[in-house]
């Protein structure tokens, strides 16, 4: 599905490395079967450990802080959410062969929504997001960088325009720039920041018996503008499902337009970066852009 390395300066991770980390730090689990999980994820390598555990190791330096965030927040959040989320079990430490913290998590059952489309996903996702946004966010983490998920959309202007320029051979950049310019002129989020997942798409959802069962990969977890959690409206849904999702989320027009801007920004940055190394994410980016333009052309 994906070539071995997707990023410059990516940390090589293989079966032997994971086995050695387990042997030196968690010998009680070293005898369990270990199998790489085939995934379109870009920040972490995932290995299934036995039938009940998973090992998660950052591939790239920008993902390193996600391990500490998971161990700080996910167990606390789980008790307040209607769908399952990853639950950390044990935190591994850097070694001479692997330079960063890593984690062991409970294995979550279910099939990835890329391969098993759930029934009425707009309803399950809206319920999850309403619950997430109601959780007390006063002590939650700020977005990880000035352009990270949850910041004001205008802070993404430079990186988004640069990506649009880079993708000029792949996209109708004139129309995309018009959509982007409209989005960044919309009023900003004027209320207290709320909890956001930050990276909702089919690859980060699990399905059991045709129903959403879990939301995974909280690497972008923060408190901020909830518009970025509207991403599935464009990266997953068709027009009618998008309308159903908008109604279920009950957001104002400005938040919806910012959400469309987020979908465009994420997609135009992903497409030139992953169009050769990660065909699943590249196709998702193309679909998202197509749906954004469909919205724009049917205003």
TrEMBL record:
InterPro entries reported for this sequence: AGP_Transferase, Aminoglycoside_PTrfase, Kinase-like_dom_sf
Pfam families: APH (PF01636)
Domain of life: Bacteria
Boundaries of every Aminoglycoside phosphotransferase domain copy: 38-260
Gene Ontology molecular function: any one: transferase activity
TM regions (residue ranges): none
Name of the featured protein: Aminoglycoside phosphotransferase
Native species: Herpetosiphon aurantiacus (strain ATCC 23779 / DSM 785 / 114-95)
